[in-house]
Amino acid sequence: xxxxxxxxxxxxxxxxxxxxxxxxxxxxxxxxxxxxxxxxxxxxxxxxxxxxxxxxxxxxxxxxxxxxxxxxxxxxxxxxxxxxxxxxxxxxxxxxxxxxxxxxxxxxxxxxxxx
Length: 115
Known about the structure:
- The protein is of the alpha+beta class and 115 residues long.
- It has two helices and two strands, in the order αββα.
- It has a two-stranded antiparallel ribbon with strand order 1-2.
- It starts with a helix and ends in a 49-residue tail after the last helix.
- It comes from Donghicola eburneus.
- This is Putative secreted protein.
């Protein structure tokens, strides 16, 4: 059963790649907009891309750059709460006294030999 599910999943992924490849080929084959025309409407100016014949050309997102739009979506992260109390049994505290550390010794040296 597991092997059958793997084969079905592989077939679905292959079909998905085939369909998206056709769509990207269609987008790349469209005539690019060579100019822009500004239309004054009741709600404000609208800019429309036009092709070489003056016909409106549809604008589309670049397929490679469209994937970067996913980075703009905020990723949900769960909130972390600080514990209301901490127990010494789970968090042992080691005390360290600053007076117990040895005093640093002076370490003077002479000038370099080849100066």
